[in-house]
Write a structure and sequence with these properties.
heterotrimer; A mainly alpha (269); B mainly alpha (316); C alpha+beta (512); A: 269 residues; mainly alpha; MetI-like fold; 9 helices; B: 316 residues; 2 domains; globular
């Protein structure tokens, strides 16, 4: 049992680490300028162009590096917004309960009733499409209810724990209880949720960009590249495969970490 | 019964909030439908007249109430663009999307439940790691990427179906089902992986419990215990998960319909959002949201039927 | 233990296999239409269109160019355009113009029928013009017809149309669709006199037209046309490759390159003036030197080569070669590509280091977005840091076109009628459609003069002067008249191109 548990986590960490390394390098250096239209069109993968070139004669490998960077940055920002707001809401409602809890959870229910893409589409239409900040904001908002729900359960279940009760009796302030006593103990539950959240953010951003309302050219995100690539599957299948596979590997790596964390949590508990 | 009543009340409240949110959201969206209808050559008087005709000059609460009562009378209003009743426009699309979700849902249930059970409760062998990895890999592939590959492989290269030529459902039902099957496949692969994993881990968790150990140590057949006792306790969370799946299928179908060129609600929705055809968008958003809320409620009710313990939890 | 796992794996694999093969089985039974080699091909075609006809189908209310483009096959006016840019009698058989040039007397053709079976009478013509021309008050639906002062049915077959003052270009607006009097459902079930009649529409899915057998002229070659709405440019290619679609216009060169040998490509022009349109009310584009610098910085031919694989005709002013008599080829290279000169002009204008700018582009038009991407690269070379903002078409219309809130935009402008005025009137400083806020006294004076002239040759010269003024003043960074690449399934022929934005399906037919 121990072996597989570590296997998942280790494999995930290695894969994600490698991807992260490539992306970090991509921020500072790419083999070619990812927007320069210098080479011939539709070159198949070769030693000069590892992933070939696209319909403008741009180096796909450089674009994938940059695109993955954009995608990860966006996904992390989305996750950040959603997690901070969601956990804050979940903590307050979970710990205090009462009318506020009831009202917020009803609104939460109503919001979860909108499929996430749908809600994001609506928010994007209000904010205006074609800006990555709006995508971050829209998806960030959309994912808040999910985190709120998970953390509410976690906080509510710990509320009754003996050490919290005794802290309350000792007159520890509510803020301190929430931040110092409860939050660290919910991290166990929240960490796997975070990895799932990251993956959802990557996949949603890809879908939005695929629908043409995410990141705009000449900047590339993996989703937008994939939509471009779909029309070129006949002449340049490597374009779709490389950009698609990058998304898959990103999500796969983080998914493995999540899985590993969940197992470890079970092992500890 | 008390629980069911309470759940239905919650459902109604949620629905009202949903419709209000949808209504307000679309009112906020910048852009003027009158301007869109009259195009770039519109005159001020023409715009004002059209706004009055569409009732856009009335105060917000009145428009909301009007719309809500209309919604329950089956009158979804007129499309700003098509000059046709919204319901006439979306009825055939509701049918397509419903069948698509249904097919995908069937695929998920039929494949993932046996898969989850068969792989569950086997402890952790050497292959389990590989199995988990494969599972994670399936979940990592975006549905639309699978869709792109499927259309390419089966629609363009093998020509098992004609990509882009969705047959009319009323005329060629079998043909349209075949077409939908591939889209449903794209929709269901990541979900099958998720459901199987979910079932696998709940069953595994259940198998660790004392009553199972006792039962097995008393000489009961492991498989018998699995089906007679464990399943009953492991199913409720899976049913909840499947209800959630039903809801999320709708969301992924927005993108997958785009990939396969299926004239369903999702694709129509995206088009109407960019056209600012509010009447249609509002109607579709609310219908989809109601669908999701209903699925959730249904799941809750089924869950508490199976597992009476939840009745207490839900009522408190 | 291990065997069980193996069984599980095999079982799931078998399950998948059954699902797959079950599906393959049905595929053979109901073979795709392309595989019916032996059976005679049904006399019908499927045409892909990138924009749904999500408009009123009433031709007098239709706004979207895409709707007009298709409904061209359903409606006709007294006269109709030909591929070579002339106007020939359609519903009318002949006409006479009075001495003073203000009264047009039309004699209707015998036996022209509406799709509902009724014969076209003078009353219908009067009704159609009354509806649009604002003779009895109300707002005129068609701007060009606001000059009409009277429409009278002289007898059953004769109609007299009177306009306020002689106007050379009025004739072009007589393409106005003739509709049956008293028919109320034009919005959703249109009735006209064209070679095809409208059958049905499924929103965002398809539009069906059928041959009109009582058509007065040469009947259409195919019996049925299904227009398939495929908005996503990428699924469009798949639909062509899979055999779902027989004909598709306005493809990009990249899409064309994907097509197999089941298709050939007919090349025409889109009849658009594609340019980087600049907002003259916004700094720094109010400065002539900056605009000229932009013109020098851009390499049109390279943009066409990279974004369109060389398909496309470079332009130098707001006129395309389709309007032969007004087109001035010498303006095309008025600003040759010259990075040094561009830099020098920028320095003179006070921007030696260049500046930042935003190019707005409509996301649904890939040929504008692609060109914009190349322009950004070219502008980098002179130190201008341009950023693309993609907007939906609806937003483009409201923010850029009506709201005039933009710096620069790549878009194509077309002519609604076959007149030079349709292209040039918008740059008159007070024009409602002057979304670039062009403001030149010389231009306004020349334009007024052109409108007041009755002599055709003189008027043509004035229009040419207007084009020259636009170029010299670097009104916009002109790029090209985009190529219209039409993918046509082999065996299908008869695609003809018009100098306006229409898709004529009446000549298209299978060769066997």
């Amino acid at each position: 049992m121990k072996q597989t548990r570590n296997g998942c986590l280790t494999a995930g960490l290695i894969l994600s680490g490698l991807m992260l390394l490539c992306i970090l390098v991509g921020f500072f250096w790419t083999p070619y300028d990812p927007t320069a239209m210098e080479s011939a069109k539709f070159l198949p993968p070769s030693l000069e162009h590892w992933m070939g070139t696209d319909s403008f004669g741009r180096d796909i490998f450089s674009r994938v590096l940059k695109g993955a960077g954009t995608t990860v940055t966006i996904a992390l920002s989305i996750m950040g917004i959603a997690a901070v707001c969601g956990v804050a809401i979940g903590a307050l409602t979970g710990y205090f309960g009462g009318v506020v809890d009831e009202v917020l959870m009803r609104v939460n229910d109503a919001l979860t009733a909108f499929p996430s893409i749908l809600l994001a589409l609506v928010v994007i239409s209000i904010l205006g499409p074609g800006s990555k900040y709006n995508v971050v904001l829209a998806l960030g908002l959309v994912f808040i209810p999910g985190y709120a729900r998970v953390s509410r359960t976690a906080f509510a279940s710990l509320r009754e724990a003996n050490y919290i009760k005794s802290a309350q009796l000792m007159g520890v302030s509510k803020g301190r209880i929430l931040l110092v006593h409860l939050l660290p103990n919910t991290v166990q539950v929240l960490l796997p949720t975070l990895t799932i959240g990251f993956n959802n953010a990557v996949l949603s951003e890809a879908s939005m960009s695929y629908l043409g309302i995410g990141v705009t050219p000449p900047d590339a995100s993996l989703g937008y590249m994939l939509s471009e690539a779909q029309g070129m599957l006949g002449t340049a299948p490597w374009y779709a495969i490389c950009s698609g596979a990058t998304i898959v590997l990103l999500v796969f790596g983080v998914g493995l970490i999540g899985q590993g964390l969940q197992r470890r949590e079970k092992g500890v508990a | 019964m008390k629980y069911a009543a309470k759940r239905v009340a919650t459902l109604l409240v949620t629905m009202i909030i949903v419709s209000l949110l949808a209504f307000l959201a679309f009112d906020l969206i910048s852009g003027d439908p009158a301007q869109m209808m009259l195009g770039t050559e519109a005159t001020e008087e023409g715009l004002a007249a059209l706004r009055a005709e569409l009732g856009l000059d009335r105060p917000l609460p009145i428009r909301y109430l009007d719309w809500l009562t209309g919604f329950f009378r089956g009158d979804l209003g007129m499309s700003y663009h098509y000059h046709e009743p919204v319901w006439t426009l979306i009825a055939p699309k509701v049918r397509v999307t419903l069948w698509l979700s249904l097919l995908a849902f069937l695929l998920i249930t039929v494949v993932s439940i046996p898969l989850g059970l068969l792989t569950a409760g086997r402890g952790e062998g050497r292959l389990a790691g590989l199995h988990t990895a494969f599972n994670q890999l399936c979940m990592a592939v975006p549905a639309f990427f699978i869709g792109i590959l499927l259309t390419w492989a089966f629609g363009v290269t093998l020509k098992w179906f004609t990509a882009g030529a969705f047959p009319d459902m009323t005329q060629d039902f079998a043909g349209s089902m075949k077409y939908l099957f591939f889209a449903a496949l794209a929709l269901s692969i990541p979900r099958i992986a998720m459901t199987a994993r979910m079932l696998r881990s709940t069953v595994a968790g259940e198998m660790e419990k004392d009553y199972v150990r006792t039962a097995i140590s008393r000489g009961n057949d492991r498989r018998g215990v699995l089906f007679r006792h464990v399943l009953k306790n492991a199913l409720p969370p899976v049913i909840a998960f499947l209800a959630q799946t039903m809801a999320e299928l709708i969301a992924s179908s927005i993108v997958v319909e785009q990939v396969f060129g299926i004239p369903g609600l999702g694709r129509f929705l995206v088009a109407c959002i960019s056209n600012r055809d509010y009447q249609v968008v509002q109607a579709i958003v609310v219908i989809l949201a109601f669908w999701v809320v209903l699925a959730g409620t249904l799941a809750d009710l089924i869950q508490q039927r199976i597992d009476p313990r939840l009745r207490l939890g839900g009522a408190s | 233990m291990n065997t069980r796992r193996l069984v599980a794996g095999l079982l799931s694999a078998a399950l998948m296999a059954t699902l797959m093969s079950g599906c393959g089985g049905t595929a053979e039974q109901t073979a795709a239409p392309t595989q019916q080699g032996e059976e005679p091909r049904p006399n019908e075609i499927t045409v892909a269109i990138a924009q749904d006809l999500d408009d009123s189908l009433d031709p007098h209310k239709t706004v979207a160019a895409g709707t007009k483009e298709i409904m061209f096959n359903v409606f006709e006016g007294l006269v109709k355009p030909t591929p070579d840019g002339n106007l020939v009698p359609a519903v009318a058989e002949s006409y006479e113009l009075s001495e003073d040039g203000t009264v047009y007397t039309f004699t209707l053709r015998d036996g022209v029928k509406f799709h509902n079976g009724a014969t076209v009478t003078a009353e219908d013509v009067v009704y159609s013009f009354d509806r649009c021309a604002d003779i009895t008050g109300g707002s005129s639906l068609v701007e060009a017809l606001s000059v009409v002062t009277d429409v009278t049915a002289v007898d059953e077959k004769t109609v007299a149309i009177t306009i306020a003052a002689p106007d050379n270009e009025f004739f072009a607006s007589l393409t106005l669709a003739i509709l049956p009097k008293g028919y109320e459902d034009q919005d959703t079930a249109p009735v006209g006199t064209g070679p095809f009649r409208y059958v049905s529409r499924a929103a965002q899915d398809n539009i069906v037209l059928e041959r009109f057998d009582d058509y007065w002229g040469e009947p259409a070659k195919v019996e049925k046309v299904t227009l398939k709405v495929i908005e996503n440019a990428d699924s469009l290619v798949m639909s062509l490759q899979s055999g779902a679609v027989d004909l598709c216009a306005k493809l990009t060169s990249t899409q064309v390159a994907q097509l197999g040998d089941e298709f050939y490509v007919a090349e025409g022009t889109m009849n658009l003036v594609q340019a980087l349109y600049l907002n003259h009310a916004v700094a720094p584009f109010d400065d002539l030197k900056v605009r000229q610098a932009l013109c020098y910085a851009i390499d049109k031919q390279q943009a066409i080569d990279i974004a369109c694989d060389g398909y496309g005709t470079p332009l130098g002013s707001s006129m395309y070669p389709g309007f032969g008599k007004y087109f001035l080829p010498e303006l095309t290279n008025y600003y040759p590509h010259d990075v040094e000169k561009a830099k020098a002009l920028l320095a003179e204008a006070g921007y030696p280091e260049g500046f930042d700018m935003t190019i707005t582009a409509p996301s649904n038009y890939s040929y504008h977005v692609d060109v914009a991407q190349v322009l950004v690269e070219q502008l980098k070379a002179v130190g201008i840091n341009a950023k693309i903002e993609l907007v939906e078409w609806a937003t483009w219309l409201s923010d850029v076109y009506s709201g005039r809130q933009f710096q620069a935009t790549v878009v194509g402008l077309d002519a609604s009628t076959m007149t030079a005025r349709a292209l040039l009137s918008r740059f008159e400083s007070t024009a409602k459609r002057n979304f670039i806020n062009y403001n030149s006294e010389t231009y306004d004076a020349l334009y007024a003069q052109a409108q007041a002239t009755i002599d055709d040759a003189e008027q043509t010269e004035l229009y040419k002067a207007l084009e020259r003024e636009l170029t010299e003043n670097a009104a916009n960074v002109y790029i090209q008249d985009t190529a219209n690449l039409v993918a046509v399934r082999k065996g299908l022929e008869g695609v003809v191109f018009y100098p306006i934005y229409v898709l004529d399906l009446s000549n298209v037919g299978w060769t066997e």
